[in-house]
Each structure stands twice: as structure tokens, then as C-alpha cells.
Fold this protein.
Amino acid sequence: MTIQPTSRPAKRSVNQAQFSGPHSHYMESLARLFDAAQTVDQIARQVEDPGLRHADKTQVGLELCTRHAAEFFAFYVCRFVLSDLSILLEKFIKRGTEWVIA
């Protein structure tokens, strides 16, 4: 197994996080999603461990599965979340400028 890097900050429990505001459920769902995505990262780190290097079907299958999961997360989930957050930010800025002008 790969040793966990010491430069990584301490893991925070998503269950203990308190979200407030009109989009609190959305933020909580995103926090749980990105917390669960850390599992893919941990599996990818273990698959890439030099001590586990084998040319057998299991190793190749694990590498392909983790790569496909990471690509799906990067190309679909992250893009959706970033575009959605940009829309929310635009709405927030628009409301703020209306408040300043008024």
C-alpha cells in the first residue's frame, strides 16, 4: 500500500459540516460527492504502487477502471459543477450590483 502523504490536511467529516443559505442542500450534496470521489483517488494511488506492478489481467483491469472513473469524474461531474457554480456566481453578482445601484 502507498503511504499517505503527510502534507495532506486532516480529513474533515462531511457529516459534521453545517451548510446554510438557499443552496444548502446543493452544497451538502456536492460535499458528499467530492468526499466520495476521494475513494477513486485512493484506489488509483494503490493501483499505481510500484510494489503491486504485475502484467496480469487484474492489474490491467484495475488501471482501466480507475482511469475510466477518473475521466468520467473530470469530464462530466467537474464540468457540470463548475458551470453550475459559475451560473450561481453570476446570479449572486447580478443581485449584488442591483443592491449597490439601488
Summary: Helices lie at 24-47, 57-101.
